[in-house]
């Protein structure tokens, strides 16, 4: 009996002690935090970090004492992001030496959001390939920024496509069906002539040479994606294709780089176009230049696209499966005049003009040099080329997983070296070792 009594006393002492520990810990830790309405007093056991749902939360680096001013919202239900938020003073830090460089990349990125969206043209059958692209874009960048994503298709998207992509994108998703006029032969195209070209190209084994849909795709990306009703809601876009990869953490917002740096077009990879697909593209361009001298920028990048002062095209182009650019530039009179002039000449169907040389020639002639940006920090792969930043220190700092040997930048078939020369830019240390 005596031993049993002692045991009860011990239990009571432990219980009282435990109670005080709980009381002390809970009042100490949570007293100063004003929880958003809706959490109530019982919110004391709610971890702030998970309050945003979906694993998306307020910046975790915020001191816990700081009262939360606004109710935490699901990003998907928020209003279109405005570029003036209370964190607008956050500096745009692009290198570790800049004030405000974010080392940790934890939680929602501070700073303003631009009026921008990702955009993907895809078929329903592309769903799993675009899923992989989205996952990488989210992991390396957008999970901290929650930008929207617009999907475009010449057919209605099916439920699987919408469910899978919406579940992966941290921003809002929008799905648009392309109008017939933007995905068909214009009436002035001679169908017989176009068909003969396709048969001839098929015989000569020119890649996509026999494809009608590929031509609609190239014409759409050249002249129409930026004026789809859904795209009219934005100022900047980042184009993403199925099965691409991103190899490094992105520590800053490329849309902000565009906006604050006055940039209109950007690239990560450049190369020579397959000449057989654009035989008369430069003739059409010269005709346009003659008809519209007012659209040609004084300080342009002609030297990037022509080695003889504009007589011929050297076939250099920015690879357009990656683009971050200004939609307002593409919607400008200058660009539309250029596209319409090319479209009248029919080369999207009588040849196989790609949207990459079309965008590149437009940027090369109608933008100031300073308006075209090379995103060295965005490490990228689209079959068969890789952009992997030169310099081990950069790659380590950005936690890259690309093989530097695969970097295409300084190889013979890349035009990036020419871009650096034309712009008087210094090539990164060690570039010569990556030439072949
Ligand atoms: N909706 C739709 N999208 C298409 C069609 N053809 C191509 N696309 C999309 O247009 C983009 C470019 O097409 P790709 O087939 O990737 O062309 P590419 O990049 O030149 O060639 P790949 O080496 O095959 O990637 C991709 O985002 C495709 O998903 C089509 O007929 N319909
Ligand atoms: C975003 O840009 C579009 C196109 O320029 C414009 O119509 C829209 O009002 C802008 N939205 C915001 C929130 O600034
Ligand atoms: C032309 O470009 C150079 C260097 O890119 C720049 O210094 C100069 O201010 C530009 N001139 C105009 C008129 O844009
Ligand atoms: C190029 O820059 C000059 C001066 O910096 C400016 O006046 C001109 O409008 C710019 N051209 C384009 C096409 O933006
Ligand atoms: Mg592709």
Automatic annotation (TrEMBL):
Gene3D superfamilies in the record: Spore Coat Polysaccharide Biosynthesis Protein SpsA, Chain A (3.90.550.10)
Pfam families cross-referenced by the UniProt entry: Glyco_transf_15 (PF01793)
Residue span of region Disordered: 46-100
Database matches in SUPFAM superfamilies: Nucleotide-diphospho-sugar transferases
Stretches with biased composition (Basic and acidic residues): 66-82
Keywords, sorted A to Z: Glycosyltransferase, Membrane, Transferase, Transmembrane, Transmembrane helix
GO molecular function: alpha-1,2-mannosyltransferase activity
Transmembrane segments: 7-25
GO cellular component, one term: membrane
Matching InterPro entries: Glyco_trans_15, Nucleotide-diphossugar_trans
GO BP: any one term: cell wall mannoprotein biosynthetic process
Similarity comment: family membership: Belongs to the glycosyltransferase 15 family.
Protein name: Alpha-1,2-mannosyltransferase ktr1
Organism field: Epichloe festucae (strain Fl1)
Gene: KTR1
